[in-house]
Amino acid sequence: MNEFLVTEDTARFGGDRRTSIHEVPGHSCEQAMAIYEPAGRIEIPAIPEAAEKLLGDAFERARPALSRVMPSITLCRPWTYVEYGVGQHITSHLDGIAPDPLAWPRQIAGISVVITQANTGGDFYVETSSSDRLWNGQTPNPAVNGYAEGMWLAHDGADNSAPWFQQMPRTRWSVAPAPGTALLYGSQLAHGTLPVTTGRVAKFISWLVAEPTVEA
After folding, report:
1. Rounded to two decimals, what is the model's pTM?
2. Could you tell me which residues come within 8 angstroms of residue 118 by beta carbon, excluding any fewer than 6 positions away?
């Protein structure tokens, strides 16, 4: 990635970027970026082929361990490279079981691999809450839709564009994984990062997907 960043015009992935992997219904891309990354970041959604292969091979090696905690995972989506400088961070949000929790395939978890950790700040965190406001309701016909009985789905728009989400009480749990460590978190778990105070954070992120089980 260092060679790629040296040879490419990095401004088009940072300050000049006008696209984002995040979307907020009813908002422009620029508005979504202001909600999710108010101080900006470098974001490269199509990484070099060699880096993609390296990460894909690492995912395959880790698949047995990942399957123990999330046995429905079948594949990993293409990776995105992100980088945060001083003052930059990603705000709290849920990814959700995208794009449609009742359709297949289902994005059920996020994964990140830190390459460079900041000197101070930049920690990844998840947030838990017992508030009913987070949940939209139980899945209809769970047996037909492939969910366990009693499975609940989170509201759409669980991010800082929604006052109810901003006001919802949450408990924050932060972690600073060592470089090269994979961090896994469910799609219905609020997460974000703290602002970098010194140094830079560089990481790869992706999403793990479940596909329908084929009946014999």
Report:
1. 0.91
2. 84, 196, 197, 198, 199, 200, 201
**Quick one: which of 161, 134, 122, 183 has its CA closest to 23?**
161
Tell me if 157 sits within 8 A of 141, measured CB to CB.
Answer: no
Give the number of other Cβ atoms within 10 Å of residue 29's Cβ: 14
Neighbours of 80 (CB within 10 A): 17
CA 172 to chain centre: 16
**Distance (Å) of CA 57 to CA 26, 52, 62, 99, 179:** 38, 9, 9, 26, 17
pLDDT of residue 215 exceeding 70: no
Task: Please provide the distance, in angstroms rounded to a whole number, between the alpha carbons at the two ends of the chain.
Answer: 43
Residue 40 in tokens = 């900006």
Q: How far apart are CA 89 and CA 185, in angstroms?
A: 18
Q: Sign of the C-alpha dihedral, residues 16, 21, 24, 27?
A: positive
Contact 192, 173 (CB under 8 A): no
Sign, Cα dihedral of 158, 160, 164, 166: positive
- Choose the weakest-confidence range: 34-43, 140-149, 187-196: 140-149
Residue position matching structure tokens 């929790």: 101
Report which of 25, 26, 45, 24 is spatially closest to residue 34, judged by C-alpha positions.
24
Question: What span, in angstroms and rounded, lies between the C-alpha atoms of 162 and 164?
Answer: 5
Amino acid of residue 191 = H
**Would you say how long the chain is, in residues?**
216
